[in-house]
Amino acid sequence: MEHDIRRIAAPPGYPPLSLAVAHAGLLHVSGCGPMRADGTVPDGFDAQFALVLENLDRALALGGSRRARVLKTTVWLTRAEDLAEMNRLTPRRFRPTRGRRARRRW
Fold first, then answer.
1. What is the C-alpha separation between 33 and 55, in angstroms, rounded?
2. Across-strand partners of 6?
3. Measured in Å, how far apart are the chain's first and last C-alpha atoms?
4. What is the pTM of this model?
5. Is residue 60 exposed (0-12), middle (13-18) or buried (19+ Cβ within 10 Å)?
6. Best CA proximity match to 106, nearest among 81, 85, 89
7. pLDDT digit string, tens, across residues 23-68
8. Domain residues of the chain, as ranges?
9. Cα(90)–Cα(93) distance, rounded to whole angstroms?
10. CB proximity list for 84: less than 8 A, separation 6 or greater
11. How far apart are CA 80 and CA 95, in angstroms?
């Protein structure tokens, strides 16, 4: 059985990696960090979180999907003190359609 694998390239200005990979009806997105196309990162966690979601939305759209169809996300924080702010911002900006999100607190 043959399955087509479709790689979605990152836009110009980003590292030359696959932004997402579509396979067997699923879109796998990886590495949506808070980086602009010019390589800069905004100041402040709120601005960085917003940019991550913009980058995620771009990757999903290029793959023919949208945030409401996301099955799972994993968030890596570089500073544990940002966890409370992430937990505050997530329900406003990422609204899953079903169930609860899994999370780990330190």
1. 7
2. 22
3. 44
4. 0.79
5. buried
6. 81
7. 988 999 987 889 888 889 999 999 999 999 998 998 999 999 998 8
8. 5-93
9. 5
10. none
11. 23
DSSP state of 50: H
Q: Convert the pLDDT of each residue in 4-24 to its tens digit.
A: 898 888 777 777 788 899 998
**SS3 state of residue 101:** coil
Report the DSSP beta bridge partners of residue 5.
Answer: 23
Q: 5-93 belongs to which CATH class? A: alpha beta
**pLDDT recorded at residue 1:** 45
- Taking Cα atoms as reference points, which of 79, 76, 96 lies closest to residue 32? 76
Cβ pair 48, 42 in contact under 8 A: yes
Looking up tokens 């991550």 gives: 52
* Residue whose structure tokens are 């023919």: 64
Instruction: Give the residue carrying structure tokens 């110009």.
Output: 12
- Contact call for residues 32 and 56 (beta carbons, < 8 A): yes
CA–CA separation, 50 and 90 (whole Å): 10
Helix (H, G, I), strand (E, B) or coil at 99: coil
